[in-house]
Amino acid sequence: MDLRRLELAVPILGVAAVLLAGLIGLPLGWLFRVSLTDVGGHLTWANFAALFEDPELLQPLLLSLGVAFAVALACAVVAGPLAWLVARSDLPWKRAIRLLVLTSFVTPPFLGAIAWEILAAPNSGLLNQAYRLIFGLPRSAHAFNIYSVGGLVFVIATYTFPYVFILVANGLERIPRELEEASSILGATRPRTALRVTVPLALPALLAGTLVAFLEAMNNFGAPAIIAIPAGLQTITTKIWTLFQFPPQPGLAAAAAVPLLAVTVLLLQVQQRLLGRRGYAVVGGKAGQPDVVPLGRWRIPALLFALAIVTVSVLMPYAALVLSAFSRTLSITLSPANLTIQHFTFVFAELSGTKEALSNSLILGVTTATAGTLLTLVIAYVVTRRALPLWRWLGYLATAPIAIPSIVLGVGLFFAYTHPPFALYGTLAILFLAFLTIELPIGYQQFQAAFRAVHVDLEEAGRILGAGRLRTLSDITAPLLWTAVVSTWCLVFVASIRELSAAILLFTVDTKVLSVLIYDLNESGDPGAIAVVGLLMLLITFAVIGIAYRLPRAGQRSRTAVAEEG
Amino acid sequence: MKSGAIGLAALAVAMALGAAEPGRAAMPAPTTITPELVKAATAEGKVVFYTSVELKLGEDLAKLFQEKYPGISVQVERTGSERVFQRIGQEYAASIHTVDVVNSSDASHFLYWKEHGMLAPFLAADMATEYPPNAFDPDGSFGSWRVTLSPFAYNTKLVKEEEAPKSFKDLLDPKWKGRLVKASPNYSGTIMTSTYETLQALGGWDFFEKLAQQDVLQVQSATEPPRKVATGERDVMIDGSEYFVYALMDQGNPLKIVYPAEGVPMITSPAAILKDAPHPNAARLFYAFIFSAPVQQVMVEKGGTRSLDKEVKDRPDHVPLASLKLWPEDPKAMEAKADEIKKKYRQLFGG
């Protein structure tokens, strides 16, 4: 009986494995194929040669690497201390600050870039206007110029630092109190303990976060498209996209995507090496409540530092978007006469693309989140319980998309699904596949961590009582994992709604999504309408997160249902 | 139609277009908009319009159409002409036929589409009587839907009239460094056309190479430089849509147009029906509608465009084309140079 059910489970898990392999293998296969062939389909190195010989391609690549390095550095310097303050000190308003950092985390960088244009364009930027007004300076003076390499680094860092923050804060909270206590018992001063114990233990998390920040910055498309192009600069991602414009040069686009892939894989390898060794340090120690360090007279300066960060990343840009959404004139002035709802009327009643983009985004968000949650749940189960032969490979596959920048995946998917037998271009399905692939690692990692916390004994009990693997998974494991299910669903939903890099290559008129609509409006230069659609997108994001965390615990419900059935 | 100049200019366009298709060219017989056509179009229920016209104006026209023909919705897909061209190319390559009626400000696109058999010739009855014959491609594959110029414009609060640049040469004065904005031929057909004409008139890239040293703010759409000047982000626009400057001036923005001494780029923006249009009847109805005198009148008055329709009265504040030195269009020659222009432009300005 049990054996039969097990055998039923194997093909299902097997299908999931094959799907996964296809999902990632197909686009990457096409990417390499296109990069290595010429128009006639012959094997050639010409595309890669052009990449290094043509300054039009080499410069964007170098700029991307430079920007990514600067962003990573800035994130480490800012988010490391902030994470420590929130996780380990007696900083006031910690909850609010953490919440605002998470708000910055879910804000799409392209929207942040648009908001920062409103704030820091050299002449019309609100901050520059205020700067001139306060100091009585002439019009040629400006404090900030967002259309510059510095501006680009600033904007990307503003929406990337939460990665470092989250990883470091979590890392610091997991440091066992005993280790630090041991240090002080042995006579070390507080600073010495911090320097010799806390910092080394937090270093792997800081390194991991900085690396993620580097990759995010290098692979970002939206922010450079909005900030760099007006300054006459191209990054490698905007360049790849340009190569898709008329006359399209798919071979070059594919070749230009390969270095991004290579750098990403390389850096992830480095990270694994470094963390693989260090990560063990705290395993085994049962983490007590971490020690809270009193800041004393540094409390107020520290608070100001934290407030400055969230003001720059969330409060000011959100205010700029709201002002822009309600401003009648193109130049924003604060007066009741300038107040209007005309941009809302335009977006919701006149703009013919809004309704379709909204429904496409919601459909994709819900389907990707649901399918992604289910798929990664199954994969994480197989890997942590070693339920299939080759389980290790499934784990690798589910993590692999981390190493594939979204725009690279977009290029690969475009080739894979515009050719038979899978002619999916022009349907929502191609966007669904893109988003699903991109979000796999997030879901997988969430569940992997959650599974480790669920004791195998509980599942074994189910199996002994005659339930098959799938039944055990649905009736015992899933309810216990409910929090992980909800948070994974939310993460994938939010990430799908804001995705632009792959969507910009894969959409057609009927499959336009909100992020692409915003991008289109930005190219036409419609600040009021952009602000309205942007705020709509943020509203959906926060509403979904809010609802998800207020849902009744389905685990309890399903257990009651089972009892009633019995 | 007040001035003969616009007819003359249109003639220049039409002659160039005619030259594209030597030999046989038969105009289709004018079609009257019958209740049957309206019924068939209503049964289709929808028309998809890919256009490069300013978004608000495009949606306004859609609204007018929906008021006149309830039951047919208009999907306006607005982006830059070069993007319109790229999107249709990418979609048609994958056998996706979404677009019914197309408008682009890069007239050479229509030569390409016609050459590839993608257009369906059509002429409505009142189009035949109201427009000069040379407003249309010889076999009626496309027609000159709107005309605009790409002049300079400045913010009157930031620049005094006597200081404003009067010629292309003036723009190279160091005092304009960091104060100029221009759109991109890689996105906008209007700018593609104006760039081509400027290159012809000024004799090569020398001007643009010097201009690239002026810290020019590089935006995409030809409708964006007027906005950037209106907000005061930059003082002077080097190129951009004349019609949208008028639309912004109507809203009270402090803008003033300058027609440069060397000459003004003129841009004819044709429209056409796709042969594989998914809503063929609605496409014809919409095409006839946007060429009709009342709609053209709205476009001139509210949108600031110029019209070839003889029944349309020009705006009193439009500087008559007869008084301007207009640079001629040559879509055929432009088509041959387009890729080279895009590449060189990107090298200079990045955008």
Secondary structure layout plus pairing:
The complex is a heterodimer of chains A (566) and B (351).
Chain A: H1 2-35, H2 46-53, H3 55-88, H4 94-106, H5 109-120, H6 126-135, H7 149-158, H8 161-174, H9 177-185, H10 190-219, H11 222-227, H12 236-242, H13 250-278, H14 299-326, H15 342-350, H16 354-385, H17 391-399, H18 406-418, H19 428-453, H20 456-464, H21 469-480, H22 482-498, H23 503-506, H24 514-524, H25 527-548, H26 554-565
Chain B: H1 5-20, H2 35-44, E1 46-51, H3 55-68, E2 73-78, H4 81-93, E3 101-103, H5 108-115, H6 125-130, E4 142-149, E5 152-155, E6 180-182, H7 189-202, H8 206-211, E7 217-218, H9 224-230, E8 236-237, H10 242-250, E9 255-258, E10 264-273, H11 280-291, H12 293-303, E11 326-327, H13 331-349
Parallel strand pairs in B: 1-2, 1-3, 6-7, 6-8, 10-11
Antiparallel strand pairs in B: 3-10, 4-10, 5-8, 5-9
Helix pairs in contact in B: 2-11, 5-13, 7-13
Structural Rg of chain A: 25 Å
Strand content of chain B: 5-15%
Low-confidence stretches of chain A: 1-5, 278-286, 554-566
- CATH class category name of the largest domain in chain B: Alpha Beta
**Share of residues in helices of chain B:** 40-55%
For the record, give the distance between the C-alpha atoms at the N and C termini of chain A, rounded to a whole number: 20 Å
Mean pLDDT of chain B: 92
